Structures are given as structure tokens and as C-alpha cells.
């Protein structure tokens, strides 16, 4: 299993890995928390991507692995099939860890994320809340996302739902609109936790620009007053150009 395939599977599993506090081994093929372990492998002979799970005892010892799910994977370069396998594995693990939908309000509806900081920093929930305030048309999309996955798969949500709006914003090159959005992104980057910072530059901005020179020039001009974010953006674009695995996560 190549690195790009594994990264695409793990991208789908990020939400449950964070929520259930799974820790990865060195090559990110095996994860465990206090009660459960899982590993991902590729059976080349049978052309299958495989998810195996095992219980973890009180001493942290992993028991015998058993197959929990498998996904037909005939083309080893097909990243879309890797995405599909990741979503299937997510559903399987969600049942194993007893993951349910996020907060429900008094009306029995999915609660919207809070804008409040977690301690001194913005977390990914506050980041999402601020983006939904800019693009309120995404609120129902957010609810549908939570209903579908049972948790917030933030990389998938920002990549598929928010990046197109940032692309359009850069294409339009409206100075006033750019300032409004980029000032929020700068605040989130400067005052966000590490996850928020990575998503701001690595998913939202880099995902909107990629190899597009016109959008890159517009973004650099709009970031003129936001030096920390500008430097981070410049560096991430250079990484995007040279790192195939990173490029694959944004495709």
C-alpha cells in the first residue's frame, strides 16, 4: 500500500482518531486507545484493503486482531477507491467505539459549533463556527455532514465545502471581500491551536490556490498585512509543489 493510499484512508478516519483518542505507531498503520486497536493493510494478492481490530487490556496489551471490514481495491493507484474504503472503515470503527452524533440542542437538532476559544486558543470547532458565520449557507451542509458521519471530519469538510468559496473569492479579487475573509483567517491562524493553523494554511489556503498562479498572486497581495500567515502560506505552497504525498491529500 503506497503512502498516498494510506493518507487518503487516514484522512477519512481523522475525526474518529481524534475523537476516540487513538495513537498511531511510527508508520501510521496501527492505532490504539485504552480499549481498542485497529490496523490497516493491503492484501495485494486478493486486491483488498483491510481493517482489522483488536481489544486492548488494562495493561495496554493488544489482543488478537480480527478482520472487521475489507474493501475491493483492484487499482492500487485509485485514490477515490481509497476514499471509499476510508469511509467504510470509518462507519465500522464508529460502531466499535460507540460514537454517536455530536451535541443535540433542545429541539433535537444538531447543535452548531461554538465560537468560543478552548483555553487561550481557537480549536477546530471555533474555526468552523467562524467560517459558518462568513458563509451561513454552509450551516445546513454542516448539519448534513454531522448526520452522515456522526462526527466532524474537518479536513473533508473544509476541503470539499469551504475551499470552493475561497477559490471563487480569489478569482473575483474583490479587495473588500478578501480583507473580510483573510482577516478572519489570520486571527484563526495567529490565535489557533496547531490543528487550526495546519488547516488554515494546508487545507483552506493551499487547497484554494494549488498550482494556480493568478490565485497565488491575489492571495499574496491580500496577505500583505498578515505577515505570519503570509510566510506560512508561502512555505506551504512550496511544500505542495515538491511533496507528492501532500499534493495527493488535496486532490
Helix fraction bin: 55-70%
Tally the helices: what do you get? Answer: 10
Characterize the largest beta sheet: strand count, sense, and whether it forms a barrel.
Answer: 5 strands, antiparallel
Say how many strands there are: 5
Order of secondary-structure elements: HEEEEEHHHHHHHHH
Low-confidence stretches: none
- SS-derived structural category: alpha+beta
Distance between the termini: 18 Å
Inertia-based shape: globular
Oligomeric state, counting identical vs distinct chains: single chain
Strand content: 5-15%
- For the CA atoms, what is the radius of gyration? 19 Å
Global mean pLDDT: 88
Give the strand line-up of the largest sheet. 1-2-3-4-5
Secondary structure topology:
Blueprint (H helix, E strand, L loop, with lengths): L2 H17 L3 E2 L5 E3 L3 E8 L4 E8 L10 E7 L6 H19 L26 H11 L4 H11 L4 H19 L2 H17 L2 H16 L3 H10 L4 H16 L1 H7 L1
Antiparallel strand pairs: 1-2, 2-3, 3-4, 4-5
Walkthrough of the structure:
With 251 residues, this protein is an alpha+beta fold. 57% of the residues lie in helices and 11% in strands. It contains ten helices and five strands; from the N terminus they run H-E-E-E-E-E-H-H-H-H-H-H-H-H-H. It has helices at 3-19, 79-97, 124-134, 139-149, 154-172, 175-191, 194-209, 213-222, 227-242, 244-250, and strands at 23-24, 30-32, 36-43, 48-55, 66-72. It has a five-stranded antiparallel β-sheet with strand order 1-2-3-4-5, covered by helices on one side. A hairpin with a 4-residue loop joins strand 3 and strand 4 (48-55). Helix 1 runs parallel beside helix 2, helix 5 (154-172) packs across helix 7 and helix 7 (194-209) packs across helix 9 (227-242). The mean pLDDT is 88.
Amino acid at each position: 500500500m503506497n503512502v498516498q493510499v494510506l493518507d487518503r484512508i487516514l484522512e477519512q478516519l481523522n475525526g474518529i482518531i481524534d475523537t476516540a483518542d487513538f495513537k498511531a505507531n511510527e508508520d501510521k498503520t496501527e492505532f490504539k486507545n485504552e480499549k481498542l486497536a485497529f490496523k490497516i493493510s493491503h492484501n495485494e494478492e486478493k486486491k483488498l484493503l483491510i481493517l482489522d481490530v483488536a481489544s486492548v487490556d488494562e495493561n495496554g496489551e493488544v489482543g488478537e486482531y480480527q478482520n472487521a471490514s475489507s474493501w475491493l481495491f483492484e487499482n492500487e493507484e485509485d485514490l477515490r477507491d481509497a476514499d471509499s474504503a476510508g469511509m467504510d472503515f470509518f462507519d465500522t470503527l464508529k460502531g466499535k467505539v460507540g460514537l454517536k452524533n455530536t451535541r443535540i440542542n433542545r429541539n433535537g437538532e444538531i447543535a452548531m459549533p461554538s465560537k468560543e476559544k478552548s483555553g487561550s486558543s481557537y480549536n477546530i470547532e471555533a474555526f468552523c463556527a467562524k467560517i459558518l458565520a462568513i458563509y451561513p449557507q454552509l450551516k445546513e451542509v454542516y448539519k448534513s455532514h454531522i448526520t452522515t458521519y456522526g462526527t466532524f471530519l474537518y479536513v473533508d469538510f473544509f476541503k470539499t465545502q469551504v475551499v470552493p468559496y475561497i477559490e471563487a473569492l480569489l478569482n473575483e479579487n474583490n479587495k473588500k471581500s478578501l480583507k473580510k475573509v483573510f482577516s478572519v483567517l489570520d486571527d484563526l491562524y495567529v490565535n489557533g491551536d496547531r490543528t487550526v493553523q495546519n488547516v488554515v494554511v494546508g487545507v483552506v489556503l493551499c487547497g484554494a490556490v494549488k498550482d494556480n498562479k493568478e490565485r497565488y498572486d491575489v492571495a499574496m497581495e491580500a496577505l500583505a498585512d498578515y505577515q505570519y500567515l503570509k510566510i506560512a502560506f508561502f512555505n506551504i505552497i512550496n511544500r505542495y509543489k515538491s511533496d507528492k504525498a501532500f499534493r495527493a491529500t488535496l486532490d
